[in-house]
Write the structure tokens for this entry.
Amino acid sequence: MIIADQKVVSIHYKLTNDDGLVIQESSGGEPLSYVHGAGNIIPGLESALAGKSTGDKLSVSVDPDEGYGARNDALVQELPREVFEGVEDIQEGMQFQAHSEQGTHVITVTKVEGERITVDGNHPLAGQTLNFEVEVENVRDATAEEIAHGHVHKDG
Ligand code: ZN
């Protein structure tokens, strides 16, 4: 079956950055399943998969504008420690959910200096070129419910 909108596609993939560092990998675990055309995965990967079918292997290099976007330095902020009231031990690498007019996103603590906490609201993969090695495991029709919901239901 050919990958097109309203198909449920299952892939195994390995994601590396330009330094060859493995960022994510599905092999050994469950394949990633998504509804094609529903914006479940980044646009650059979704468009590369269109027209492929089960058993196909592909290498895709996705620029930031087709991936998680460019880094935005305005999303890096220094905050006073009292903003994190209730968090006992703030450390670099901690992540918090932040709510704004743009919706919910994750901020990461990047520096802790006394009373000043630096946080970064960029997606961890923003600004990076993403290199995917993909193998298409399965393609099936999405159910009416999956199409309505825009996501995959286990066992169809
Ligand atoms: Zn659902």
